Structure formats: C-alpha cells, structure tokens
Amino acid sequence: MIGGVMLQFDFFAWLAGIPDWILGVLKWIYGIFSYVFHWIFNVFTWIWTTIFIPKNFMFLFRAVIFPGLIFVVMALIWAVWFTRKLWGRIQDRRGPLHMGKYGGLQLFADAIKLIGKETIIPDKAKRWMFRFLPGLLLVIVLLPFAFIPWDTVSAVDGGWAISDLNVSLVLAFAFLTAVPVIALLAGWVSGSKYTLIGGFRAANNQFAAEIPMIISTIGCAFLARSLSIFDISMAQSSLWFAILLPINLATFLVAAIASVGVFPFDAPVADSEIIFGWRTEYTGIYFTLTYFAEFAEQMLYSALIVALFLGGPNGLPFLPGPVNFIIKFLITFFFFVLVSSSFQRLRQDQIVYFCWKYLLPLAVLNVIVIMFAVVYLPGLMLPLLGVG
Amino acid sequence: MSPDILDGSMDIWFGPQHVSAHGWATKLTLVGDYIVECDPNAGYFHRSAEKVLEFKNFRQGPLVLERMCMLEAFLAEYPYVAAVEKIAELEIPERAKVMRTIMMEMSRIHSIQFWWGQFNAELGFFTMALWPWVDREYSLDVFEELTGSRHTVSFSTPGGVKYDFTEKVMTQLNRAIDRFEDRLVKFKDMQLGSPTFRARTENIGLYDVKQGLKWGLSGPPIKACGVPMDLRKDDPDPNLAYDMVDFDVPITENPEHPGQSDAFDRMEQRFAEAETAVSIIKQLIPQIPEGDIVDPKARGKANRLPEGEAYARVEGTRGITSVWLKTEEKGQTAYRAKIRGPCIASYYALKDLVPGSKFADFIVIFGSLDPYPGWWDR
User: Fold this and answer.
1) Interface mutation target, options B27, B31, B125, chain A, most CBs of A under 10 Å
2) Which positions 326-355 of A are in contact with B (Cβ < 8 Å)?
3) Do the Cβ atoms of B199 and A345 come within 8 Å?
4) Which CATH number does the domain housing residue B103 bear?
5) A308, A343, B132, B309: which has the fewest Cβ within 10 Å?
6) Which domain holds residue B228?
7) Measured between beta carbons, which residues in chain B are less than 8 angstroms from residue A266?
8) Is the residue at B19 inside a domain?
9) Would you state the torsion angle of the CA atoms of residues B59, B63, B64, B65, taken in this order, to the nearest 10 degrees?
10) With an 8 Å Cβ cutoff, are B10 and A193 in contact?
C-alpha cells in the first residue's frame, strides 16, 4: 500500500482476521448465555433462599404436602376406596378385594387402567374446551381446600391451617358455584344430546340446592360474627354450632349432597336415563379427572360441615388440631356415603321441589329461631358463645 | 298437536347403545323435558328363533325356546313342549307334572327377583338392586344343582322332565324358598314404604283395564289393574299340577285409582306374584308323588310326529306365553312354529303410554312393564 489508498480487497488480511472474528462471535454468544444463566441462577437462588427461611418453608410444606395438595389427593384416593368398600358392605357385597390389602390399591389399578384407555373425542365436540374442562373442574374443586381450618393455629403463627381470608366462606361458595357451570359447559361442548341434558340437569341441581345450602351457613356466620371459615371454627371452641343449629346441619348436608349430584340426587349423571349425563363422552384420563372431582367435592363439603358446624379443629384437647379435624371429617364423610346409598333417585323437578319446599324454609327457620334466642335470651346464649 | 310445538323438539334414540337399553331401541321425541312421541322399534335382538325351530327336532326345540327369555327358562320352554305333547298325544307321569310346576314357579320367582333388582337399578338405587340378587343366587343354585346350568336349563322334554329331584336339590330348593319368604316381607316393607320410591312411581305410567286389554297386555301389567286374568285358574293345563294346590289369583287393587295401574301398583303386583309362587311351591313340595319322571315311550314318539297342529300357552312371569306348532306327516321338525311372547304387547304399549310423561319417567314406565327383548324379536 505504497503511495496511495489501497482500495483493493486484501484477501490475506481478511483470512488472517477470521479466527478473531469467530472468537468474537463465540464470546458474544457466551455472553448471552452466561447472562441468561446467571439471571436464572439468581432467580433460583432467590427462590431457594426464600423457601428455606424456616417460616416460608413450613408454609410451602403445608400448602403442598400436608395438609395441602398431596394430603388432599391421598385423602381423595382413600375416599374412593372407602366409598366403594362401604357401598359394597351395605349392598351385601365385599367391595374391592384383590389389589393390595383389603383392596386398598384398587384405585391405583383403576386409574392406570383408565389412563391407559383410548381418549375418544367426538367429532361434534369443541376439542379444546372438551380437553380443558375436566382439569379445570378438578382444580376448582381442590382450590377451596386452602381455606379449610385444619388447626386451631393459623400458618402465620406456626400452625397447620394453610391460609385464610376474612371472606373465605363466600369465596369457597364462589368456587363451588363454578362447578355445575363447568358441568353445563362440558355437556354443551361434548356435542351429544345426552350430555346436553345432563349438563342442564347439573345446572338444575345447583339451582335447587345452592340457596338452601348458603342460607344454612348464615347462622354460623352470624353467631361467629365473621365470614371467615377459620374464625367460624374458632368461635366454636366452647360450643359446637351443631348444637345451636342442628336443622341447619341437616339441611346443609342434604343440600351438599344435592349439589354434588350423587345418589339420590344424581339426576345429572343418571345412568339409566341419560347414560352418564354430562360425563358420557369423557373417556380415559378425562373421565378419571371428572370422577376424582366428584369425590373431591364430596370431601370438600364434608370438610366444610366439620369447619362450620362440628367445631373444626376444636375437640379433644389432648389431640392436635388436625387429628381432631380429620376424625370428624371421616365421620362426616361416612354419613355422606350412607345417605347416598339409601334412596331411589329423585326426578329433577322433584329435587327442586324438595330443596325449595322443605330445605329452604327449614334452613331459614333455624336461623330465625337462633337469632330470636340471641336477642331475647341473652343471658343464656351469650355465655354459650363465649361473648360478654 | 300443533306443528310449531314440534319445531323445538329433539329426537333421542334410547338404545341400542344405551346402557339401560340392552337389545332394544326406542326413538323418543322430546319437547323440553316432556316426551311427545315414542316410537318403539323391534328388531335389534332378532335371532330368528321361529326359523331355527324349523330345523331342530322336537327334543331340541325347547332349547331354542328357553333362550328366548333366559330369566324364565322353565316357563319359556314349556309351551313348545306342551304343543309337541298335544300333537304326539303323550302321557305325562304324575311326578313330572308336579316337578314341572314347582320349577316353573321357581323360575317365576327367579325372574321376579331379577326384574326387581333391575327396576331398582333403573330407579337409581343400586343397594336395593343387589339385595334381591343375593336371593337370586340361591334360586340359581337350585337350577344348577338340578340341571347343571344356571340359565339354559332344558328341563322339560316331551313326555316328562329330564332331571330328577335329588336329596341335595330338595335341600337347596327349601333353603331358597325359606330364605326368600323370610326376606320378601322385609323387602316389601322397605320397597313400598320408601318415600323416594313412592315419589318416583306413583301415578307414573297410569292406564286402565280397557287400554291394557286394547294393547293386548297380560300377566302382571293387567293383573295390577285388578283383573284376575290368570291362565293358572282360567285354563288349567292338564299336564301341570295347579289343580293340586289352593291359591288365589294375585291381583292388586289400588283404592286411589280403581281399575287403573301405575308403576307402584305393578311393583306391588310383583310382590303378590312372588308370594303366590312361594305358597304354590310350599304346597307342592310335600305332594311330589313317586314314580317315573318321563314316559319311556316318549322319546320314540317324539322322534316323528303325526300331521297336526297345536296351540299351547302358559302364564309366564310377564304374561301369556304361547306357541303354535304345525307338523307334517312323519315330520322330524316343525313345519312352522309361531311364538307369541307377552312382551311384544307391553313394548308397543309404550307408543300410547309414554307420550306426555317426563323424560326421566320413561325408564320407570318401561321397567314397570318389564318387557324382555327376546320376547318380541323372534
């Protein structure tokens, strides 16, 4: 390049520069990856350290393992076994027998079988909603378990009750109201006449049962002066509300059975009439999810009955709160199964008639009676409630 | 009905894939929750039994008949046997007559036990479905011990019966009857006293005698209206032993709607039928005479029948079951056999009976008439 500007392309200089160029590119890529990696690593570190602060770790343990998700799912598996065994005993049979001790592993065998089955989606079904709804149903049914007061001490103070809101009762019912809506939607998107009828029957059941059920809980909320399930169960430390509101306990139990839609209120899934109602077209894993959701809903209502009427975790003082709660929970669930195996199925108009003509006035009557008692017999009532 | 009501209608096929439709398909037209049209369709259970009978000899024929309705196998095979006996002019030993009657009544009990459980399952009460089915096992034990088969018994044969009552059969028979008689009282109380059962069945599927006779109903569906129409009394078969026992025709009269029957009455009628059957068996067991169980010459006589035709019928669990048989000279098989089961009438009665009722009540009406598809697809 003597005496002027070298405009010509210097091939050899270019050739000599290639390794530098490759190195630069590699450094650039490495920089991106290392940045992302460090970012992720830092996030993990942050989560890790946050979790393993003892308080946080215990909260997560409660939410995920006990008495949260894993425990509830294990209890669900137990509930299915228990229901089948009890049904068998009532019906002069032996129930599940061969898988595991006393047929205890039968549900796992059934679940594996069901999951292994072919998933058939009808041509007329709305495919994505059809796939999405069973999972959503199970999630919605499992969510209110977060508000169940398993212990007399809340998680914030180191107890076993997972979480609470000052309106958790309302929120739990809000979740539960969505269940028949999903049933109706599932019946609608399945694209079959039987599922459509079943979906509308599920909506009909909720229409019949929801108002008596919610009015049955008004008495508890009044007496505890709170809408929080935790506070309601804490207000029963001296006296269970079942003693003051016995009719409401009965109406809540019956309305809960009607709302779940098991026998004798199983018009939504009446197998002799509409095959399997809104669940007709579900097969394999989707059927398993809806099947589990039904049992989860029964368990949730049993837990709500214990929390609202049977003192929640209050009970034998020498036992820890969760143990007290679970004992009462098992007994309540036993009654659920017992009632559901003892009657002929009601027609859907008879369900509405029954719920509105008998359950609703009875529920209101009990609330009115107890309110009059609080107003006119304060000397008797207020010490019972631990007030004044 | 004005056409605009039918604009919003929905056709539903109840069967043949439906879980509670085992071998039948009924097309229902719904407006809202009400059925406005019901179209029963026979033919989904067709096994061409009448044609098969033209290729089977006269000792094989009962085997086809008992497969028409395996729940009442002893009763189902009898009309064919009786028709053959009429043409061949066979003499039946006294012992075989009594044994046939006992087993036919046992078959009636078994059929009612099964129907009873099935009806409760259709009503959504599986507990009450399984309790009668436990008793049914005891009835089936008798059949198995006697004939070696639980359902396809092939007991009656032209000229008598095939299997003799042994000591063990009698023990099991007594056990089944005693157990059922004991449980019947409790079950009747539980079933008819249940408020949910009353709610589901009272005034459901209501018809009167006139309608019932127009449709051609017989047996429990018409006896539930209070009509004592029973072949055991009206036309006693000389080859059966109903003249040896003292019984009344079981009828159900409901004072709330005299001359009519609803699903509840028909359930009550089945209880009365079972009670009568138990009492007949209990009266017959001490009266079983000694002797042959089959006419020794019957086998040869039934090989080739003379030309002739015969009509035989029996009061089955579900109504009058009849067979008309025509034979040619020295025929080894029937020239033509015509089976008339009771359920063709009760199935097609749904066409007039069901419209106007709710969709959920369809299976209650259907179940209370107790149609068995084998009897209408021949």
Assistant:
1) B125
2) 341-350
3) no
4) 1.10.645.10
5) B309
6) 46-342
7) 124
8) no
9) 100
10) yes
CB A263 within 8 A of CB A341: yes
Name the residue type at position B5: I
| Domain contains B111 | yes
Q: A223: which DSSP letter?
A: H
Contact A348 B360 (CB under 8 A): yes
Q: What is the pLDDT of residue B323?
A: 92
Query: Which of B138, B198, B200 to probe by mutation at the A interface, max A CB count within 10 Å?
Result: B200
Residue-by-residue DSSP string for B255-281: TTSTTEE-HHHHHHHHHHHHHHHHHHH
The alpha-carbon gap from B377 to the nearest alpha carbon of chain A, in Å, equals: 22
Q: Chain B interface, mutation test: which of A87, A197, A279, A347, most B Cβ atoms within 10 Å?
A: A347
Q: Specify the DSSP element, H or E, that contains B338.
A: strand B336-340
pLDDT of residue A360: 92
Burial class (CB in 10 A: 0-12, 13-18, 19+), A76: buried
CA B159/CA B58 separation, integer angstroms? 11
Q: Does A275 touch chain B (CB under 8 A)?
A: yes
Cross-strand partners of A200: none
With CA atoms as reference, report the closest residue to B361 among B127, B125, B193, B202: B202
Q: What whole-number distance in Å separates Cα of residue A324 and Cα of residue B48?
A: 66
Chain A CA closest to residue B125? A344
Please give the Cα distance from A223 to B108 (Å, whole number): 60
Contact B135/B183 with Cβ under 8 angstroms?
yes
Residue A151 is predicted with a pLDDT of 84
> What pLDDT sits at residue A5?
66
**Which residues does chain B have with pLDDT short of 50?**
none
Distance CA A252, CA A301 (A): 9
pLDDT score recorded for residue A363: 92
pLDDT at A7: 67
pLDDT of residue A364: 93
Q: Tell me how far apart the alpha carbons of residues B21 and B373 are, in angstroms, rounded to a whole number.
A: 9
Across the interface, whether the CB atoms of A270 and B360 are under 8 A apart is answered yes
Chain B within 8 Å of A263 (Cβ-Cβ)? Answer: yes
B186 at interface of A, judged by CB pairs closer than 8 A = no
Does B238 contact A at CB distance below 8 Å? no
What's the 3-state SS for A331-384?
HHHHHHHHHHCCCCCCCHHHHHHHHHHHHHHHHHHHHHHHHHHHHHCHHHHHHH
Residue appearing with tokens 């085997």: B63
Number of domains in chain B: 1
CB pairs under 8 A between A and B: 79
Domain boundaries of chain A, sorted by first residue: 11-52, 69-384
ipTM: 0.80
**Interface membership of B94 toward A (CB under 8 Å):** no
Which residue ranges of chain A lie beneath pLDDT 70? 1-7, 155, 386-388
CA distance B300 to A138: 71
Name the residue among A263, A275, A341 with its Cβ closest to that of B19: A275
Domain-embedded: residue B231:
yes
Is residue B64 in some structural domain? Answer: yes
The neighbour count for residue A106, using CB atoms within 10 Å, is 20
Task: Calculate the average pLDDT of chain B.
Answer: 88
Q: Give the dihedral sign, CA B326/B328/B333/B336.
A: negative
